[in-house]
Write a structure and sequence with these properties.
single chain, 478 residues, mainly beta, Immunoglobulin-like, 4 domains, eight-stranded mixed beta sheet, 34 strands, elongated, disordered N terminus
Protein backbone atom coordinates (compact mmCIF):
# COMPACT_ATOMS: atom_id res chain seq x y z
CA UNK A 1 0.00 0.00 0.00
CA UNK A 2 2.88 2.36 0.82
CA UNK A 3 4.24 1.63 -2.67
CA UNK A 4 0.87 2.51 -4.19
CA UNK A 5 0.79 5.80 -2.34
CA UNK A 6 4.32 6.72 -3.50
CA UNK A 7 3.41 5.72 -7.05
CA UNK A 8 0.30 7.90 -6.93
CA UNK A 9 2.33 10.88 -5.77
CA UNK A 10 4.93 10.33 -8.48
CA UNK A 11 2.21 10.19 -11.11
CA UNK A 12 0.68 13.38 -9.78
CA UNK A 13 4.00 15.28 -9.75
CA UNK A 14 4.76 14.09 -13.26
CA UNK A 15 1.38 15.26 -14.45
CA UNK A 16 1.95 18.60 -12.77
CA UNK A 17 5.38 19.11 -14.32
CA UNK A 18 4.04 18.32 -17.78
CA UNK A 19 1.21 20.83 -17.40
CA UNK A 20 3.67 23.45 -16.16
CA UNK A 21 6.25 23.03 -18.95
CA UNK A 22 4.76 25.87 -20.98
CA UNK A 23 4.82 28.29 -18.06
CA UNK A 24 8.00 29.88 -16.71
CA UNK A 25 7.66 30.29 -12.95
CA UNK A 26 9.48 33.31 -11.52
CA UNK A 27 9.93 32.98 -7.77
CA UNK A 28 11.10 35.60 -5.23
CA UNK A 29 14.64 34.23 -5.74
CA UNK A 30 14.68 36.22 -9.02
CA UNK A 31 13.72 39.43 -7.25
CA UNK A 32 15.88 42.50 -7.83
CA UNK A 33 13.95 45.13 -5.85
CA UNK A 34 10.85 45.26 -3.68
CA UNK A 35 9.04 48.36 -2.41
CA UNK A 36 5.97 48.25 -0.18
CA UNK A 37 4.05 51.50 0.29
CA UNK A 38 1.38 51.23 2.98
CA UNK A 39 -1.65 53.50 3.44
CA UNK A 40 -3.76 54.13 6.56
CA UNK A 41 -6.84 52.68 4.87
CA UNK A 42 -5.64 49.06 5.08
CA UNK A 43 -4.11 48.72 1.62
CA UNK A 44 -0.55 48.54 0.35
CA UNK A 45 1.07 49.27 -3.00
CA UNK A 46 3.58 46.52 -3.87
CA UNK A 47 6.27 47.11 -6.51
CA UNK A 48 8.04 43.82 -7.21
CA UNK A 49 10.89 43.80 -9.75
CA UNK A 50 12.17 40.36 -10.87
CA UNK A 51 14.53 39.19 -13.59
CA UNK A 52 12.62 37.10 -16.13
CA UNK A 53 14.08 35.01 -18.99
CA UNK A 54 12.03 35.74 -22.10
CA UNK A 55 11.97 34.26 -25.56
CA UNK A 56 11.03 36.28 -28.59
CA UNK A 57 7.30 36.29 -29.11
CA UNK A 58 4.72 34.87 -26.73
CA UNK A 59 5.69 33.99 -23.15
CA UNK A 60 3.68 32.63 -20.25
CA UNK A 61 5.15 33.82 -16.95
CA UNK A 62 3.99 32.80 -13.48
CA UNK A 63 4.74 35.35 -10.76
CA UNK A 64 4.55 33.27 -7.59
CA UNK A 65 4.39 34.38 -3.94
CA UNK A 66 2.17 37.40 -4.42
CA UNK A 67 -0.49 38.63 -2.01
CA UNK A 68 -3.55 36.43 -1.62
CA UNK A 69 -5.52 39.67 -1.12
CA UNK A 70 -4.26 41.36 -4.27
CA UNK A 71 -6.78 43.60 -6.05
CA UNK A 72 -6.55 42.12 -9.58
CA UNK A 73 -7.84 45.19 -11.39
CA UNK A 74 -5.00 47.26 -9.89
CA UNK A 75 -2.21 45.18 -11.50
CA UNK A 76 0.29 47.04 -13.68
CA UNK A 77 3.15 45.26 -15.47
CA UNK A 78 6.03 47.01 -17.20
CA UNK A 79 9.29 45.93 -18.83
CA UNK A 80 11.61 46.77 -21.70
CA UNK A 81 10.08 45.66 -24.99
CA UNK A 82 7.28 43.76 -23.27
CA UNK A 83 3.53 43.93 -23.91
CA UNK A 84 0.92 42.30 -21.67
CA UNK A 85 -1.70 40.38 -23.64
CA UNK A 86 -3.51 38.64 -20.78
CA UNK A 87 -3.23 38.19 -17.03
CA UNK A 88 -4.90 35.70 -14.67
CA UNK A 89 -4.83 35.77 -10.89
CA UNK A 90 -4.94 32.19 -9.57
CA UNK A 91 -5.89 32.09 -5.92
CA UNK A 92 -7.55 28.64 -5.91
CA UNK A 93 -5.02 27.04 -3.59
CA UNK A 94 -3.90 23.49 -3.03
CA UNK A 95 -5.86 22.66 0.13
CA UNK A 96 -7.76 19.57 1.30
CA UNK A 97 -11.18 21.07 0.62
CA UNK A 98 -10.22 22.46 -2.78
CA UNK A 99 -8.76 19.11 -3.86
CA UNK A 100 -11.95 17.36 -2.79
CA UNK A 101 -14.16 19.86 -4.60
CA UNK A 102 -12.10 19.63 -7.81
CA UNK A 103 -12.11 15.81 -7.66
CA UNK A 104 -15.92 15.48 -7.58
CA UNK A 105 -16.89 13.00 -10.33
CA UNK A 106 -13.46 11.37 -10.51
CA UNK A 107 -12.31 7.96 -9.28
CA UNK A 108 -9.80 7.74 -6.44
CA UNK A 109 -8.21 5.10 -4.24
CA UNK A 110 -9.57 4.75 -0.71
CA UNK A 111 -7.74 3.07 2.12
CA UNK A 112 -9.08 1.78 5.42
CA UNK A 113 -8.14 -0.58 8.24
CA UNK A 114 -10.34 -3.65 8.67
CA UNK A 115 -11.19 -3.69 12.41
CA UNK A 116 -11.72 -7.47 12.35
CA UNK A 117 -8.33 -8.36 10.90
CA UNK A 118 -6.27 -5.21 11.41
CA UNK A 119 -5.22 -5.37 7.77
CA UNK A 120 -5.10 -2.32 5.51
CA UNK A 121 -7.43 -2.64 2.52
CA UNK A 122 -7.65 -0.52 -0.63
CA UNK A 123 -10.61 0.00 -2.97
CA UNK A 124 -11.67 2.20 -5.84
CA UNK A 125 -14.34 4.83 -5.20
CA UNK A 126 -16.02 7.64 -7.08
CA UNK A 127 -16.42 11.02 -5.35
CA UNK A 128 -20.06 11.99 -5.92
CA UNK A 129 -20.10 15.15 -3.81
CA UNK A 130 -18.21 17.07 -1.15
CA UNK A 131 -20.34 19.22 1.16
CA UNK A 132 -19.80 20.54 4.68
CA UNK A 133 -16.41 18.86 4.90
CA UNK A 134 -17.76 15.35 4.22
CA UNK A 135 -17.34 13.39 0.96
CA UNK A 136 -20.09 11.27 -0.55
CA UNK A 137 -18.49 8.17 -2.11
CA UNK A 138 -19.74 5.47 -4.46
CA UNK A 139 -17.97 2.22 -3.54
CA UNK A 140 -19.06 -0.60 -5.81
CA UNK A 141 -22.86 -0.44 -5.82
CA UNK A 142 -23.16 1.35 -2.46
CA UNK A 143 -23.14 4.98 -1.39
CA UNK A 144 -20.92 5.84 1.61
CA UNK A 145 -21.32 9.12 3.53
CA UNK A 146 -19.21 8.43 6.63
CA UNK A 147 -16.18 6.71 5.20
CA UNK A 148 -13.81 5.71 8.05
CA UNK A 149 -10.60 5.69 6.01
CA UNK A 150 -8.64 8.13 3.87
CA UNK A 151 -8.66 9.14 0.22
CA UNK A 152 -5.58 8.83 -2.03
CA UNK A 153 -5.43 11.05 -5.12
CA UNK A 154 -3.76 9.72 -8.25
CA UNK A 155 -3.06 13.23 -9.55
CA UNK A 156 -3.40 16.85 -8.54
CA UNK A 157 -6.66 18.37 -9.82
CA UNK A 158 -6.22 21.05 -12.45
CA UNK A 159 -6.01 24.77 -11.70
CA UNK A 160 -4.83 24.43 -8.11
CA UNK A 161 -1.74 26.28 -6.94
CA UNK A 162 0.38 25.95 -3.82
CA UNK A 163 0.55 29.76 -3.49
CA UNK A 164 -1.34 32.70 -5.02
CA UNK A 165 0.12 33.19 -8.49
CA UNK A 166 -0.31 35.71 -11.29
CA UNK A 167 -0.09 34.19 -14.78
CA UNK A 168 1.03 36.70 -17.41
CA UNK A 169 0.83 36.24 -21.16
CA UNK A 170 3.64 38.52 -22.36
CA UNK A 171 4.75 39.40 -25.87
CA UNK A 172 8.49 40.15 -26.00
CA UNK A 173 10.23 41.88 -28.91
CA UNK A 174 13.42 39.95 -28.30
CA UNK A 175 14.90 36.98 -26.48
CA UNK A 176 16.56 38.36 -23.36
CA UNK A 177 16.52 38.35 -19.58
CA UNK A 178 14.59 41.48 -18.63
CA UNK A 179 13.57 43.21 -15.43
CA UNK A 180 9.79 42.96 -15.16
CA UNK A 181 8.08 45.20 -12.61
CA UNK A 182 4.79 43.95 -11.17
CA UNK A 183 2.83 46.61 -9.28
CA UNK A 184 -0.44 45.96 -7.49
CA UNK A 185 -2.61 47.07 -4.59
CA UNK A 186 -3.35 44.61 -1.82
CA UNK A 187 -5.81 44.54 1.03
CA UNK A 188 -4.69 43.18 4.39
CA UNK A 189 -1.72 45.53 4.92
CA UNK A 190 -2.03 48.42 7.35
CA UNK A 191 -0.06 50.78 9.54
CA UNK A 192 -0.74 53.19 12.34
CA UNK A 193 1.29 55.52 14.48
CA UNK A 194 1.72 54.96 18.21
CA UNK A 195 3.38 57.52 20.45
CA UNK A 196 4.95 57.20 23.89
CA UNK A 197 5.30 60.41 25.91
CA UNK A 198 7.13 60.77 29.24
CA UNK A 199 6.30 63.80 31.39
CA UNK A 200 8.87 65.44 33.61
CA UNK A 201 8.28 66.17 37.32
CA UNK A 202 6.92 69.66 36.64
CA UNK A 203 4.51 68.57 33.88
CA UNK A 204 5.89 71.27 31.58
CA UNK A 205 8.18 69.15 29.37
CA UNK A 206 7.91 65.72 27.78
CA UNK A 207 9.98 63.35 25.66
CA UNK A 208 7.96 62.05 22.71
CA UNK A 209 8.81 58.93 20.69
CA UNK A 210 6.73 57.89 17.70
CA UNK A 211 6.49 54.29 16.55
CA UNK A 212 5.03 52.83 13.38
CA UNK A 213 2.99 49.68 13.97
CA UNK A 214 2.77 47.56 10.80
CA UNK A 215 0.33 44.69 10.36
CA UNK A 216 0.55 42.20 7.50
CA UNK A 217 -2.54 39.97 7.42
CA UNK A 218 -1.75 38.50 4.01
CA UNK A 219 -0.24 35.07 3.35
CA UNK A 220 2.92 36.45 1.72
CA UNK A 221 6.09 37.78 3.36
CA UNK A 222 7.78 40.89 1.96
CA UNK A 223 11.47 40.31 2.68
CA UNK A 224 14.26 42.87 2.31
CA UNK A 225 11.72 45.49 1.22
CA UNK A 226 11.97 49.25 1.00
CA UNK A 227 9.22 50.45 3.33
CA UNK A 228 7.21 53.61 2.67
CA UNK A 229 4.22 54.93 4.59
CA UNK A 230 1.68 57.47 3.34
CA UNK A 231 0.07 59.66 6.02
CA UNK A 232 -3.25 61.14 4.96
CA UNK A 233 -6.70 60.04 3.86
CA UNK A 234 -6.53 58.74 0.30
CA UNK A 235 -9.97 58.30 -1.22
CA UNK A 236 -10.69 54.65 -2.04
CA UNK A 237 -13.82 53.21 -3.67
CA UNK A 238 -13.89 49.45 -3.65
CA UNK A 239 -16.01 46.51 -2.42
CA UNK A 240 -15.22 44.73 0.81
CA UNK A 241 -11.87 42.86 0.75
CA UNK A 242 -12.02 39.27 -0.45
CA UNK A 243 -10.79 36.81 2.17
CA UNK A 244 -9.03 33.83 0.61
CA UNK A 245 -8.60 31.71 3.72
CA UNK A 246 -7.92 32.18 7.39
CA UNK A 247 -4.40 32.34 8.68
CA UNK A 248 -3.42 29.43 10.86
CA UNK A 249 -0.55 31.24 12.57
CA UNK A 250 -1.04 33.76 15.34
CA UNK A 251 0.22 37.28 14.76
CA UNK A 252 3.71 37.85 16.10
CA UNK A 253 4.96 41.03 17.73
CA UNK A 254 8.52 42.23 17.26
CA UNK A 255 10.31 44.64 19.54
CA UNK A 256 10.49 48.16 18.19
CA UNK A 257 13.70 49.12 16.44
CA UNK A 258 14.67 52.50 17.86
CA UNK A 259 18.03 53.18 16.23
CA UNK A 260 16.76 55.64 13.62
CA UNK A 261 13.72 57.68 12.65
CA UNK A 262 12.06 57.63 9.24
CA UNK A 263 12.67 60.40 6.75
CA UNK A 264 9.61 62.38 5.69
CA UNK A 265 8.69 64.41 2.62
CA UNK A 266 5.57 66.14 1.39
CA UNK A 267 3.82 64.24 -1.40
CA UNK A 268 1.08 66.47 -2.79
CA UNK A 269 -1.54 66.64 -0.07
CA UNK A 270 0.02 63.79 1.92
CA UNK A 271 3.23 62.98 3.75
CA UNK A 272 5.52 60.13 2.73
CA UNK A 273 7.73 58.42 5.32
CA UNK A 274 10.58 56.18 4.13
CA UNK A 275 12.57 53.81 6.31
CA UNK A 276 16.31 54.35 5.75
CA UNK A 277 17.07 50.61 5.49
CA UNK A 278 15.37 47.50 4.07
CA UNK A 279 13.16 45.51 6.40
CA UNK A 280 11.14 42.28 6.46
CA UNK A 281 7.34 42.41 6.72
CA UNK A 282 6.46 38.80 7.39
CA UNK A 283 3.13 37.09 6.84
CA UNK A 284 0.70 37.37 9.77
CA UNK A 285 3.05 39.65 11.67
CA UNK A 286 2.81 42.87 13.62
CA UNK A 287 6.07 44.79 13.98
CA UNK A 288 7.15 48.26 15.05
CA UNK A 289 9.83 50.59 13.75
CA UNK A 290 10.92 54.04 14.94
CA UNK A 291 9.14 56.97 13.30
CA UNK A 292 10.27 60.15 15.06
CA UNK A 293 11.39 61.56 18.39
CA UNK A 294 11.29 64.88 20.20
CA UNK A 295 13.12 65.70 23.43
CA UNK A 296 12.02 68.24 26.03
CA UNK A 297 8.86 69.22 24.14
CA UNK A 298 7.10 72.12 25.86
CA UNK A 299 3.67 71.13 27.18
CA UNK A 300 0.92 72.72 29.24
CA UNK A 301 -1.31 70.89 31.66
CA UNK A 302 -4.89 72.10 32.03
CA UNK A 303 -7.81 71.20 34.30
CA UNK A 304 -11.14 71.90 32.63
CA UNK A 305 -14.75 71.83 33.85
CA UNK A 306 -17.06 71.67 30.83
CA UNK A 307 -20.81 72.48 30.93
CA UNK A 308 -21.14 71.71 34.63
CA UNK A 309 -24.25 73.87 34.88
CA UNK A 310 -27.52 73.53 33.01
CA UNK A 311 -28.44 77.20 33.25
CA UNK A 312 -32.20 76.66 32.94
CA UNK A 313 -32.59 73.69 35.31
CA UNK A 314 -29.52 73.17 37.54
CA UNK A 315 -30.06 73.09 41.28
CA UNK A 316 -27.27 71.96 43.63
CA UNK A 317 -24.33 69.84 42.48
CA UNK A 318 -21.19 68.56 44.18
CA UNK A 319 -18.05 66.42 43.69
CA UNK A 320 -17.78 67.21 39.99
CA UNK A 321 -14.25 66.49 38.77
CA UNK A 322 -12.43 68.29 35.93
CA UNK A 323 -10.90 66.62 32.91
CA UNK A 324 -7.11 66.70 32.65
CA UNK A 325 -5.70 67.92 29.34
CA UNK A 326 -2.17 68.11 27.99
CA UNK A 327 -1.50 70.53 25.14
CA UNK A 328 1.56 71.26 23.03
CA UNK A 329 2.44 73.14 19.87
CA UNK A 330 3.91 71.11 17.04
CA UNK A 331 6.72 73.52 16.30
CA UNK A 332 10.51 73.34 16.23
CA UNK A 333 11.11 76.02 18.85
CA UNK A 334 9.11 73.94 21.34
CA UNK A 335 11.15 70.79 20.66
CA UNK A 336 9.15 69.11 17.87
CA UNK A 337 8.13 70.60 14.50
CA UNK A 338 7.52 67.32 12.64
CA UNK A 339 4.41 66.15 10.71
CA UNK A 340 2.58 63.77 13.05
CA UNK A 341 0.49 60.95 11.52
CA UNK A 342 -2.73 60.15 13.31
CA UNK A 343 -2.45 57.61 16.09
CA UNK A 344 -2.60 57.02 19.83
CA UNK A 345 -0.44 58.93 22.32
CA UNK A 346 0.19 57.10 25.60
CA UNK A 347 1.52 59.28 28.42
CA UNK A 348 3.72 58.09 31.30
CA UNK A 349 5.31 59.72 34.33
CA UNK A 350 7.88 58.50 36.86
CA UNK A 351 6.90 58.05 40.50
CA UNK A 352 9.11 58.79 43.51
CA UNK A 353 10.90 55.46 42.99
CA UNK A 354 11.73 56.33 39.37
CA UNK A 355 9.19 53.83 37.99
CA UNK A 356 7.10 54.73 34.96
CA UNK A 357 3.36 54.99 35.63
CA UNK A 358 0.74 55.18 32.88
CA UNK A 359 -1.31 58.39 33.31
CA UNK A 360 -3.59 58.35 30.25
CA UNK A 361 -3.90 58.19 26.49
CA UNK A 362 -5.73 59.90 23.65
CA UNK A 363 -5.94 59.81 19.87
CA UNK A 364 -4.62 62.53 17.60
CA UNK A 365 -5.47 63.24 13.99
CA UNK A 366 -2.92 63.95 11.26
CA UNK A 367 -1.19 67.04 12.63
CA UNK A 368 0.84 69.42 10.49
CA UNK A 369 3.74 71.52 11.73
CA UNK A 370 2.65 74.59 13.76
CA UNK A 371 -0.66 73.00 14.74
CA UNK A 372 -1.77 72.54 18.34
CA UNK A 373 -2.33 69.09 19.87
CA UNK A 374 -4.68 68.51 22.82
CA UNK A 375 -4.70 65.23 24.73
CA UNK A 376 -7.40 64.29 27.25
CA UNK A 377 -5.75 62.12 29.88
CA UNK A 378 -8.63 61.49 32.30
CA UNK A 379 -10.14 63.15 35.38
CA UNK A 380 -8.35 64.84 38.28
CA UNK A 381 -8.66 63.18 41.69
CA UNK A 382 -7.94 66.09 44.08
CA UNK A 383 -9.87 68.88 42.34
CA UNK A 384 -13.65 69.13 42.66
CA UNK A 385 -16.47 71.58 42.10
CA UNK A 386 -19.70 72.09 44.05
CA UNK A 387 -22.30 74.68 43.29
CA UNK A 388 -25.83 75.95 43.37
CA UNK A 389 -28.23 78.34 41.72
CA UNK A 390 -28.47 81.42 43.95
CA UNK A 391 -31.21 83.35 42.15
CA UNK A 392 -33.73 83.16 39.35
CA UNK A 393 -35.94 85.98 38.03
CA UNK A 394 -38.28 85.78 35.06
CA UNK A 395 -38.34 88.89 32.87
CA UNK A 396 -41.59 88.64 30.98
CA UNK A 397 -42.15 85.36 29.16
CA UNK A 398 -39.12 85.45 26.86
CA UNK A 399 -36.20 86.18 29.21
CA UNK A 400 -34.84 85.43 32.66
CA UNK A 401 -31.89 86.15 34.95
CA UNK A 402 -30.05 83.46 36.91
CA UNK A 403 -27.25 83.65 39.46
CA UNK A 404 -24.80 80.86 40.36
CA UNK A 405 -22.15 80.11 42.94
CA UNK A 406 -19.43 77.52 42.32
CA UNK A 407 -16.94 76.39 44.98
CA UNK A 408 -13.73 75.10 43.38
CA UNK A 409 -11.66 72.93 45.75
CA UNK A 410 -8.01 71.88 45.56
CA UNK A 411 -6.77 69.12 47.91
CA UNK A 412 -3.22 69.14 46.53
CA UNK A 413 -0.27 70.79 48.25
CA UNK A 414 0.44 72.92 45.18
CA UNK A 415 -1.66 75.72 43.65
CA UNK A 416 -3.57 74.99 40.45
CA UNK A 417 -5.45 76.92 37.81
CA UNK A 418 -8.67 75.48 36.39
CA UNK A 419 -10.71 76.49 33.39
CA UNK A 420 -14.42 76.63 34.18
CA UNK A 421 -16.10 76.51 30.77
CA UNK A 422 -19.83 77.01 30.37
CA UNK A 423 -22.19 76.99 27.41
CA UNK A 424 -25.02 79.54 27.52
CA UNK A 425 -28.18 79.26 25.40
CA UNK A 426 -29.46 81.71 22.79
CA UNK A 427 -28.81 85.40 23.41
CA UNK A 428 -26.99 86.02 26.69
CA UNK A 429 -24.96 88.55 28.61
CA UNK A 430 -23.09 88.48 31.90
CA UNK A 431 -24.63 90.89 34.43
CA UNK A 432 -22.09 90.39 37.21
CA UNK A 433 -19.17 88.08 38.04
CA UNK A 434 -16.55 87.62 40.75
CA UNK A 435 -13.76 87.61 38.18
CA UNK A 436 -13.47 88.51 34.52
CA UNK A 437 -14.77 85.94 32.01
CA UNK A 438 -13.59 85.37 28.46
CA UNK A 439 -15.69 84.50 25.43
CA UNK A 440 -14.72 81.32 23.58
CA UNK A 441 -17.42 81.57 20.90
CA UNK A 442 -21.03 82.72 20.49
CA UNK A 443 -22.34 80.20 23.03
CA UNK A 444 -19.37 79.54 25.31
CA UNK A 445 -17.79 81.56 28.10
CA UNK A 446 -14.98 80.55 30.46
CA UNK A 447 -13.10 81.66 33.57
CA UNK A 448 -9.50 80.80 34.46
CA UNK A 449 -9.63 80.36 38.22
CA UNK A 450 -6.62 80.05 40.53
CA UNK A 451 -7.08 77.79 43.55
CA UNK A 452 -4.57 77.90 46.45
CA UNK A 453 -2.96 74.70 47.80
CA UNK A 454 -5.37 72.73 50.01
CA UNK A 455 -7.79 75.61 49.51
CA UNK A 456 -10.94 76.84 47.82
CA UNK A 457 -11.97 79.62 45.44
CA UNK A 458 -15.56 80.78 45.01
CA UNK A 459 -16.71 81.76 41.55
CA UNK A 460 -20.00 83.66 41.24
CA UNK A 461 -21.75 85.01 38.19
CA UNK A 462 -25.17 86.25 37.11
CA UNK A 463 -26.40 85.92 33.54
CA UNK A 464 -29.37 87.20 31.56
CA UNK A 465 -30.82 84.83 28.96
CA UNK A 466 -33.12 85.82 26.12
CA UNK A 467 -35.23 82.82 25.12
CA UNK A 468 -35.61 81.89 21.48
CA UNK A 469 -39.18 82.44 20.29
CA UNK A 470 -40.84 80.86 17.28
CA UNK A 471 -40.53 84.15 15.40
CA UNK A 472 -36.80 84.52 16.17
CA UNK A 473 -36.15 80.90 15.23
CA UNK A 474 -37.89 81.44 11.89
CA UNK A 475 -35.94 84.61 11.28
CA UNK A 476 -32.68 82.81 12.08
CA UNK A 477 -33.54 80.00 9.68
CA UNK A 478 -34.18 82.49 6.90
Amino acid sequence: MFRKLITGLMISMAAFSVSAQEITTVSPAARERLTVTIYNQGIGLVKDVRKVPLKQGDNQIAFSDISDQMIPESVFVSGNGVTVQEQNFNFDLLTHDNMMQKAVGSTVDIEWTNPATGATETQKAQILAFNYGEPVLKIGNKIETKYPGRILFNQIPKNLWSKPTLILDLMSKQAATEEIELSYLSNGINWKADYVAELNDSDDKMDLNGLVTLTNNTQVSYENATLQLVAGSVNITRPQPRVMYKASAMMLAENAVMDSAMGSEQLGDYYLYTLDRPTDILSNQTKQVALLSGDHVTVQKQYKFTDTINVAYTTDFKDVKPSVFLTFENKKEDGLGLPLPKGTVRVYKKDQNNRLIFVGEDNIDHTAVQQKVTLRLGQAFDITAAGKKTSYTAIGKDAYEAGFEVALNNAMKTPVQVRFEQRLPNNWRILSESQKSMKENANTVYWNVDIPPEGQTILTFKVQIQKETAASAKAKAQ
